[in-house]
Write a structure and sequence with these properties.
This protein has 415 residues and is an alpha+beta fold. The chain is built from seven helices and 22 strands. 18% of the residues lie in helices and 35% in strands. Helix 4 runs parallel beside helix 5 (120-131).
Length: 415
């Protein structure tokens, strides 16, 4: 069975939690006690309908305020597909949570309140999905019942989003527009009679039709070493293996590889997974690899195919999504974590702030504040071996850590 990872996005009160609750209800994925709790709480609030947002808002503060604060992961299945949905907050101050939720997703649902249309948070969420190169984006135009299921209103919002998409540098993204009402159930799981002008699929049918491909597009092979395996048992007294996860491409016994940063060359001798050996493994596999030569390999090193060596440098330029209350400024120092590698980093320059409505950039700003996205140049204390995010997602990202608070201050996408 396919497993599809989905992120949700949208402004406050656009109905993300209600939509997910409706899907769970209509697919019979809610347990009896959960459904009873929703019915009781809805009655206590004086509602004459079921408040489906209670199915996902798990924190006390979320239930009391009727908002989503933290990222909630919801699991459910249909006969065709298993789903993992990241229900992310809509408030501007929680945009960083949306970045986290979308970073590992194969598809994203961007909700828009049909009454309000495209607003600032819509620009930001749509831009982030483009920045993260999410392939399948569903524009769910919600609360159609409050605009009399107007086709004109639907087309107006659709045209605005398509105009934004035309200005994006990422052209492989597939957009799907669905008019729905999460509260009433229109076009969520069942086709609605209130939108006879809409000829497309319901939201659930469309999600089931998506291919649950790996979010990592085929690219050059990268194998960051997580740990060195030395059993030191009678049966494996000479065994020296390197454990990690394969990104980008595939690996096979006999492949010529280069160890970074030492640039030592060798060939793959064997590939192990638990008690089995394989001649070839695909990207996404977590395995242990042995080499023909007794070369020096440590945690934090990377094995790459000899003809596919990435950039090795102490300087890099990147697009940063800033997540810290303390603004980023030139000359600031942070810890950088790139894969399993870490080092000290210094911000050499902040060249621009990117406007999330695709209208351009603000050149040479003095600082980058919470939830802003900008282009920076960094210098690190030791060479990193990296790719651009466009070529290899896993090897093209990093996080910056505030050395004073140990908080994640920003996430970077290498250019």
């Amino acid at each position: 069975m396919n497993v599809l990872k989905i992120a949700t996005a949208g402004s406050v009160d656009d109905g993300k939690s209600t939509l997910i609750g409706r899907i769970l209800y209509d697919t019979n994925s809610l347990t009896d006690d959960k459904l009873e709790a929703i019915e009781e709480k809805s009655r206590q609030r004086g509602f004459d309908y079921l408040d489906f947002s209670l199915a996902t808002d798990g924190l006390v503060a979320e239930r009391e305020q009727g908002i989503t604060i933290d990222v909630a992961h919801i699991y459910f299945s249909t006969p065709k597909t298993s789903f993992i949905i990241a229900d992310t907050p809509g408030h501007i101050e929680y945009t960083r949570n949306m970045v986290t939720g979308a970073s590992n997703s194969q598809a994203s649902i961007v909700l828009i309140d049909a009454r309000n249309g495209v607003i600032e948070q819509t620009y930001r969420h749509f831009f982030i999905n483009n920045l993260l190169r999410v392939k399948n984006v569903i524009i769910a135009i919600n609360k159609m019942d409050l605009v009399d299921y107007s086709e004109e209103k639907f087309n107006q919002i659709k045209n605005e989003i398509e105009y934004l998409a035309s200005k994006s540098a990422y052209k492989n993204q597939q957009l799907t527009f669905i008019p729905l009402s999460a509260l009433k159930g229109d076009n969520v799981v069942e086709k609605s009679e209130n939108t006879p002008w809409y000829k497309g699929e319901t939201l659930l049918n469309h999600l089931e039709s998506l291919q649950a491909d790996d979010i990592e597009e085929q690219s050059q092979t990268r194998f960051p070493v997580q740990t060195v395996i030395r059993p030191k048992t009678d049966d494996y007294h000479d065994f020296r293996g390197y454990a990690g996860k394969i990104y980008g491409g595939n690996l096979a016994v006999g492949d010529s590889v280069t160890v970074l940063p030492s640039a030592t060359e060798s060939k793959i001798k064997s590939i192990h997974f638990f008690d089995k050996e394989y001649l070839q493994v695909k990207r996404g596999s977590s395995v242990t690899i042995t080499l023909e030569d007794n070369v020096n390999v440590s945690r934090g090193d990377m094995l790459v195919k000899t003809k596919e060596v990435p950039t090795v440098s102490k300087e890099l330029t990147a697009t940063i999504c800033w997540m810290d209350k303390n603004p980023l400024q030139a000359s600031d120092k942070y810890y950088i974590k790139h894969g399993v590698n870490d080092a000290q980093a210094k911000i050499m320059s902040l060249s621009s702030i990117i406007k999330t409505d695709f209208s351009g950039k603000e050149e040479n700003p003095s600082q980058l504040t919470l939830n802003e996205i900008g282009d920076v140049t960094l210098k690190v204390s030791k060479p990193l071996f990296y790719d651009s995010y466009q070529k290899n997602k896993a090897n093209g990202t990093f996080i910056l850590i505030n050395p004073k608070t140990n908080n994640t201050a920003g996430v970077g996408f290498i250019q």
